[in-house]
Each structure stands twice: as structure tokens, then as C-alpha cells.
Design a protein that fits this description.
Layout (H helix, E strand, L loop, with lengths): L1 E3 L8 E4 L3 E5 L4 E6 L3 E7 L4 E7 L17 H16 L7 E7 L7 H18 L3 E6 L4 E7 L4 E7 L2 H23 L8
Parallel strand pairs: 2-4, 7-8
Antiparallel strand pairs: 1-2, 3-6, 4-9, 5-6, 5-7, 9-10
Amino acid sequence: MKQLIDSNYRMPHYSIDPGEFMVSGERALLESVAGKTLVVALYHEKLKMGGLANFIVPGNIESGSIAESTVCETGIGYIEFLLADIVKSGGRRDELVAKIFGASCKRSDHDFCKTNIQFIHEYFENEKIPVIAEDLGREYYRRVLFIPLTGELYSKRILSVPEMQLIYKKEKDYIEREINGLQTETEFVMF
């Protein structure tokens, strides 16, 4: 995540890239873009705080449930990071709402897209967190602007080819890292 200098918004402005998340209770603008990735915004109205995460479920769900699928651990982890920061500030899970975007798909990516949409719907259904806005699937990329203090969120289609190519490259690099991470065995040493 990096802070952007932009006088148009008159508030701190942060860019959340694929594989990143941020939670804030301040007057700030969190921005992310979604092609194949999912962008999740969580908001807690009583605390006037929220967070944004940009991630992907890097493969197909092996079993019937996301809880039993190793590829879903990535997505679960990012959402749990957001939840943990809000809960540490005194929030309760049952007081959160979610807004979800992304999982853009071309014909060649249809299974990948479907997996991510299945994951995000099943996750929030299992956690009983209402999804109050969503724009998933379809063939276009999206820019998401989120103000965590108020819960306001704006989504806009990205039509610029050079911008879509840049997003594609960032996401491709991120997805390759996530897939390679799944193939690497981790050894834990107890001491």
C-alpha cells in the first residue's frame, strides 16, 4: 500500500494493490482496482471505520466447501486480517457490512472467475455478514474508491487500455506469487 499525493480529494489517499489490505477510522480515501482479483470493503457504522482488501483465490475449490479447500486459505486470510483490525478496535462481526467487486472474467478465465465469486458469496454467507453492494464477474475492470470513515464507496469501470494493461501485469505478477506460494511447503520449527 502506498500513500498518494492528490489534492483533488483533500484527504489522505492510499492505493491498495493486489495482495494488500488497509483498515482505517480516519477521514481517508482507500483506492484499489480489480480485474481478476476481488476487492472487499468492510464497514462498521458504529465505530465509523472500515477496510479494503485486494486479493484472489488462486485456483479451483477442490471440495464442496471453502472451509475445506486449501486454495481458499488466501482469501479467508485477507478478510480475517480486515476483521481482526476492526474487532481489535471494539467492533463486532455481526455489526459489519460488506461490499464486493471484481472477479472480471474473459472466456479463458471463466472457471477462475466462477471460483472467486463462489468463494466470496459462500464466505460472507457462512460468516453472516450482509453484502450490501456487489459488482462481480463480467468482462470489465473496476476502480474502487472507499472512504472508511463514512462507508461511502464508488466504483467505476476502467476503459483505458494502457491502464487495463498495467492492472493486468500487476495482477498477473501477484497471482503467480500466490500460486507459487501454494506449491511451496512450509516447515515449522518448534522451539
